[in-house]
Amino acid sequence: MMQNPPPPVPPSQTLYLNNLNEKVKLEELKKSLYAIFSQFGEILEIVAAKNLRARGQAFVVFKDINSASNALRSMQGFPFYEKPMRINYAKKKSDAVAKLDGSFVAKDANKKGAVKEKRKAPEQAGGEAKRVMEKAMPMMGLMQGMMQGIIPPGMQPPAVNTVAPPMPPKPRPTPPQTGSEIPHKILFLQNLPPETTEMMLTMLFEQFPGFKETRLVPGRHDIAFVEFEVDQQASQAKQALNQFKITPKNAMSISFANK
Hints:
The structure is a single chain. By secondary structure, the protein is α+β, with helices and mostly antiparallel strands. 32% of the residues lie in helices and 22% in strands. The protein is built from 7 helices and 13 strands. It has a 5-stranded antiparallel β-sheet with strand order 7-13-8-10-9, covered by helices on one side. It has a 4-stranded antiparallel β-sheet with strand order 2-3-1-6, covered by helices on one side. A hairpin with a 2-residue loop joins strand 4 and strand 5. Helix 1 runs parallel beside helix 6. The radius of gyration is 23 Å and the shape is elongated. The termini are far apart.
């Protein structure tokens, strides 16, 4: 007797991705997923883990269902690090969505930990918890920012009780004037975040016909060049991706390279 197929997963704000390349490092995987999925709408979080059971999988959580649905239709089978992604709606609501709609319930604490906490005096337990949270908050904020691509790796949290005012930032050198409005098969990219890699840019531009290669500039993280076969193909990519936000604070500026 034939069994009925399982019912389809209803649309939700969370997408489940699998068949991902397991050789990609976790942080690079998250940043690359953010770069290619943020074009469809605001992303609340990207969840991935490096343990054996979770390899090759990830969850992308959007703020609304329409964004998730558009991403699913557009990116199904997308060659992500040389493997076609398989995408479906997640079966369970993510914590980020639950917090957004007010239905979030914290999981039960570890029983052993709960027993130990009962043995402590209430004042002592409360004081220790407060001190731990005060210590952890700056680092938690920094780590969350790095996950979302907002804070570049290596930035330190602000010092506590700083007496002297912070030193003004050093003026950055003006980028070379290599941008032009005369059509050219090579595009000049500016305002790229420090964590930009050739693979991230390649995944953004290879969806357009005629793409040839991406070239980063040695010693400069904020500029790059992308080459197409002919001017018209480069113009199509420029029109589609100019001001695309690689991170929430970095809108990529694209112009034609000088001939």
